[in-house]
Design a protein that fits this description.
The complex is a heterotrimer of chains A (229), B (388) and C (380).
Chain A lengths: L3 E12 L2 E13 L4 E5 L6 H8 L7 E6 L2 E2 L5 H11 E4 L11 H6 L9 H14 L15 H13 L5 E5 L7 H16 L4 E5 L3 H6 L2 E6 L2 E7 L3
Helix pairs in contact in A: 4-5, 5-6
Chain B lengths: L4 H10 L1 H33 L6 E6 L12 H8 L14 E13 L2 E13 L3 H4 L4 E5 L8 E5 L14 E4 L2 E10 L8 E5 H7 L7 E5 L6 H10 L5 E5 H7 L2 H36 L1 H10 L3 H27 L6 E6 L4 E6 L4 H27 L3 H6 L1
Parallel strand pairs in B: 3-8, 5-7
Antiparallel strand pairs in B: 1-9, 1-10, 2-3, 2-9, 4-7, 5-8, 6-7, 11-12
Chain C lengths: L3 H10 L1 H32 L6 E6 L7 E2 L2 H6 L4 E9 L12 E5 L1 H7 L3 E2 L2 H8 L4 E5 H7 L6 E6 L4 E13 L8 E5 H7 L5 E2 L1 E6 L5 H12 L6 E5 H11 L3 H29 L2 H10 L3 H33 L15 H28 L2 H8 L1
Parallel strand pairs in C: 4-9, 6-8
Antiparallel strand pairs in C: 1-11, 1-12, 2-10, 3-4, 3-11, 5-8, 6-9, 7-8
Classes of the chains: A alpha/beta (229), B alpha+beta (388), C alpha+beta (380).
Chain lengths: 229, 388, 380
């Protein structure tokens, strides 16, 4: 069984008076330990696919199974706790809470667990160590560069040891050097720490890091490249 | 260059909820402010209108209220003969020796709750000495009879005050034969009857005060000196208007202190509300402000602009507050005037001046509240703002 | 709670705004406590009165005196243990700007009847044995710096002339309604100076059986009903309560203002909360993405509102309690025993709680209902 199974997923949006069909019967498997890049032109549904995967949105019909659980039928309360356990999400705008330090931002997902303060602190330090920002723990987001902020966001995404790490255009707001650092980090997360990663991106460099590239166009999977590494 | 007012007006409308809440907060403070000062106004008006500049009030020396005074009959004839006293059309001196006592009257809804009402024994000249009196209904009490005339403000607040009804006090029955008005003054809270009728029932052969019309109001000081230095008398002479104004006394001071104290505290809270709103406004419009500065508008114009905006919101609040307070005008309430120990009824008095003061107060709150946020807007570092 | 750092961090986001809102809440609750305490004090004072003391005044009006001859007759009535009398003096001290009550009392019987008036025994004896002695309340010592042994001169307004007394004692009232700012002197001396007029302002009658109060009162009044000075007798408590009604609609006034104040503050707090909430929709969406449930986010917003209102309440209510105690406030003599009761404090706390809910509920609901996808799309 694949880690993620999309079966005949339909998704439509109502925008003003228009009904927009994003997916009409999407079927897809994502294997455990894979590093998948989702590419395609604007409006192809890449972000929507990610949202469906993370339980941030519900399909109009069809089934989305992650690690054996049917996501599409969960209540929003169930989804919340499911997300806390299984999903690490990284946004294009970093989306760190400006009023919290880097440390506190990374700690956020752990507050939803039953871990003690000591255990939480330990894991946060480890996560920040993996992204190489231990020395910036007490800094506020406004004191960090764009690249550093994104790495903190990644640390937040992995600190609770989620089943999936999902990233929506993570390098979109970064300069070339920071992008390369972030992508290299993602590569390590996949190869060393065996994390299953799915990344929506325009960036061809990102595609290079990934093991599999999926091309979406108008809601349809048109190509699946398996890159040999 | 002046930033056009329409920009502020439109911006205010863009945040309807925030603006409304702030304006309402200011409005409430203004309403309380106007209400409390209207209370004090009413009290003071009632007492101020009570005395006339043309009249003089004589009390026993050292007495600070009619209640604690006592004057004998001889004193009355001596004063009536004074050249300073005006004479009426009938040639008689305009002098009214009066008895002043307080009687307990039960309130209609709770007979155990008593109010001390003033009962004044007048001479028939009183109707001539005091200029603004009018018999509203019935006819004046006749000499020699147990008849009384009831002041306008007592009607409806106590029982047995209708024309023809019998009021019982001091162990006797008295017939109500008329109602009178007295230009909104404290006399309207009194019951009047003939002084000779009251003397035997109350304090015997003594009057509490003598009121007379000055032949020439400008010569009051002379009259005062003449009468007070007369060896046969031990009296103090007061100008009637001044005396009653002074009767506001402790009650007036307390009301004023209360009004100022309470509204000050509330005002600070409302100002804080305005500050919050304006800071948020400045924060959310940072890019616009930057553009204005880049275009060449002077920072001082930006400052003025935001102050005006804050004042605008405050004006709306002031209007709301004034409208909230307006209905209280004319409402009659009563309390005990501690200086004279008597119950005095008066109406809340909202004057145009008071409304104006309320609006000014609102604008001041708005400007104070908007000052620091406006300053921040004016001092915005343009480059950073544009990047944001 | 482990979420506390997040709540506090959010409050620190706009320090000025938070501070101002807390200050507003404090001010409002200070005002509320002050206004309500006026009502509670008046009420408490109107409840004062021993069940064993009756007060007899002239039925024609309290400004009219009663003959001293009544004393013996009242004393002889069945059920009456003791009789005392007093006169309101109403003198002026100095420029008369500050006011305090003065009574001429039948010293020995009066002090015996009012055990609430306490003082050192030697002072009591000194006062009782000197004709022109005066007994003053503790507040007068603070206000004028008077000392035992000092002479004090009053200007009579009702009873003219200069009246000089020697302070022989300072009393402490054990019941606040008695007032700690009264001057008592000898009725004997008073009567002497006004030419033996033989008048008493009112009588205080001590009875053995509290249950017989109504009967004794009626019997007393019946005795003098047809005389030139008819009497009106009632329990001391009824007498006290009567004073309270003289102030008119004070309760209504205080209540109305109190309500307006609380309302105004609600507006200020709600406004501040909503402004904060509006600026944070993006962050709320992120937290939901991370896995925070709608319920948790709802609670966090309420907690934030709560932090503001609770701190404001503690500061405002605490300040009220402390301030009035520190300045020994008694409403210029009209509110003896003024204090902020625990009832008022509790009510203030309740208001703070309600304020928390009212100002936080809408932003909290907005946060809980926020659609993540729409919120994030808005940000992008």
């Amino acid at each position: 069984m694949a880690l993620v199974e999309f079966r005949d997923v339909h998704k439509a949006f109502q925008r003003d008076s228009e009904r927009i069909e994003v997916f009409t019967g999407l079927t897809l498997d994502v294997e455990e330990g894979s590093f998948t890049a989702l590419m395609g032109p604007s409006g192809s549904g890449k972000s929507t696919l990610l949202n469906l995967l993370a339980g941030l949105d519900r399909p109009s019909s069809g089934s989305v199974r992650v690690a054996g659980a049917e996501v599409s039928t969960m209540t929003s309360a169930q989804l919340a706790s499911w997300r806390a356990r299984h999903i690490g999400f990284v946004f294009q705008q970093f989306n760190l809470l400006p009023v919290l330090t880097a440390f506190q931002n990374v700690e956020l997902p752990l507050l939803l667990t039953k871990l003690s303060k000591r255990e939480r602190d330990e894991r946060v330090k480890i996560a920040l160590g993996v992204v190489g920002l231990e020395d910036r723990m007490r800094h506020y987001p406004r004191q960090l560069s764009g690249g550093q902020e994104q790495r903190v966001a990644i640390a937040r995404a992995i600190v609770a040891d989620p089943t999936l790490v999902l990233l929506d255009e993570p390098t979109g707001q970064l300069d070339a050097k920071s992008s390369r650092e972030v992508l290299a980090l993602l590569g390590r997360l996949n190869s060393e720490f065996k994390k299953t990663i799915m990344i929506v991106t325009h960036d061809p460099h990102a595609a290079e890091q990934a093991g599999t590239v999926l091309h979406l166009e108008k809601g349809t999977l048109i190509e699946r490249e398996a890159l040999v590494r | 260059m002046r930033i056009p007012l329409i920009y502020n007006a439109r911006s205010v409308l863009q945040r309807p909820l925030s603006t409304t809440l702030t304006a309402l907060g200011i409005g409430l403070v203004v309403a309380v402010f106007i209400g409390m000062l209207a209370l004090g106004n009413g009290l003071r008006a009632a007492l101020a209108r009570t005395g006339s500049e043309a009249n003089a009030l004589v009390l026993r020396r050292g007495a600070d209220a009619e209640l604690s005074s006592g004057i004998g009959r001889e004193a009355v004839s001596i004063i009536a003969a004074s050249p300073h006293v005006a004479t009426g059309v009938d040639g008689r001196p305009l002098v009214s020796p009066e008895v002043y006592v307080l009687i307990p009257l039960p309130r209609p809804f709770d007979s155990t709750a008593l109010a001390n009402v003033v009962v004044r024994g007048i001479s028939d000249q009183a109707w001539n000495v005091r200029a603004n009196l009018q018999v509203m209904a019935g006819e004046r009490p006749h000499s020699g009879r147990s008849e009384v005339c009831v002041g306008k403000k007592l009607l409806g607040r106590f029982d047995h005050l209708g024309i023809g009804e019998t009021l019982r006090f001091a162990g006797r029955d008295w017939t109500v034969v008329c109602h009178f008005s007295a230009g909104g003054s404290a006399f309207e809270s009194e019951i009047w009857g003939e002084n000779e009728q009251f003397m035997p029932v109350f304090r015997g052969e003594v009057f509490q005060s003598i009121t007379f019309r000055l032949r020439d109001p400008a010569t009051f000081d002379e009259a005062k000196r003449a009468i007070e230095s007369d060896q046969r008398l031990t009296v103090d002479v007061h100008r009637e208007s001044t005396f009653y104004e002074g009767q506001v006394g402790i009650l007036g001071i307390m009301l004023r202190a209360l009004a100022i104290g309470i509204t000050s505290i509330m005002a600070v809270g409302a100002i804080f509300g305005a500050v919050n709103t304006m800071y948020a406004a400045v924060a959310s419009r940072t890019p616009e402000i930057a553009v204005l500065l880049t275009l060449g508008f002077h920072p001082r114009s930006v400052l003025a602009s935001f102050l005006v905006e804050s004042a605008l919101i405050a004006v709306v609040g002031g209007v709301v507050g004034a409208l909230l307070a307006l209905p209280i005008n004319g409402v009659v309430t009563s309390t005990t005037n501690w200086s004279s120990f008597s119950e005095i009824a008066f109406s809340f008095r909202v004057t145009p001046l008071l409304l104006g003061e309320g609006m000014a107060f609102a604008i001041i709150m708005g400007v104070l509240g908007g000052f620091f946020p406006a300053r921040r807007a004016a001092k915005l570092p343009v480059v950073q703002a544009l990047r944001a | 709670m482990k979420y506390l750092p997040i709540v506090l961090a959010n409050l620190r986001r706009h320090k000025i705004r938070t501070l101002l809102t807390v200050a507003s809440v404090s001010l409002a609750l200070f005002l509320f406590a002050s206004l309500r305490s006026v009502i509670t004090t008046l009420h408490a004072n109107s409840q004062f009165g021993s069940a064993h003391r009756l007060v007899t005044t002239n039925a024609t009006g309290i400004v009219f005196p009663l003959p001293m001859a009544y004393a013996a007759k009242i004393r002889a009535l069945p059920g009456v243990d003791a009789v005392s009398w007093a006169n309101w003096f109403g003198g002026r001290y100095g420029d008369g700007k500050s006011f305090f009550a003065q009574f001429a009392v039948d010293a020995e019987s009066y002090l015996a009847m009012y055990p609430e008036i306490t003082m050192p025994e030697d002072q009591r004896q000194a006062f009782l044995h000197e004709r022109t002695a005066a007994l003053i309340g503790t507040r007068l010592v603070d206000r004028y710096g008077w000392k035992v042994g000092q002479d004090v001169t009053l200007q009579g307004t009702i009873f003219p002339g200069d009246w000089t007394f020697t302070i022989r004692g300072v009393y402490t009232p054990t019941a606040p309604a008695i007032g700690d700012d009264v001057l008592l002197f000898h009725h004997e001396y008073f009567d002497e100076r006004i030419g033996h007029a033989g008048i008493a302002g009112w009588y205080i009658v001590q009875i053995a059986d509290a249950g017989a109060a109504a009967t004794i009162a009626k019997g007393l009044d019946d005795q003098f009903r047809n005389s030139s000075a008819p009497t009106k007798t009632g329990t001391e408590q009824a007498f006290q309560a009567g004073w309270a009604t003289m102030l008119g609609n004070v309760s209504l006034l205080m209540g109305t203002i109190g309500t307006a104040v609380v309302f105004a503050i609600l507006l200020v707090t709600a406004n501040a909360m909503m402004m904060s909430a509006r600026e944070r929709t993006g962050e709320v969406a992120v937290m939901k993405t991370v896995g925070f449930s709608d319920r948790t986010l709802f609670a966090l917003v309420i907690a934030e509102a709560g932090a503001i209102t609770v701190i404001g309440a503690v500061v405002g209510l605490g300040a009220a309690k402390g301030f009035y105690r520190a300045v020994n406030f008694n409403g210029f003599g009209f509110l003896p025993g003024f204090s902020v009761t625990s009832g008022t404090l509790a009510l203030g706390g309740l208001i703070a709680l309600l304020l928390m809910l009212a100002s936080g509920v809408i932003p909290a609901m907005q946060a809980a209902r926020l659609s993540i996808v729409q919120a994030l799309r808005r940000v992008e």
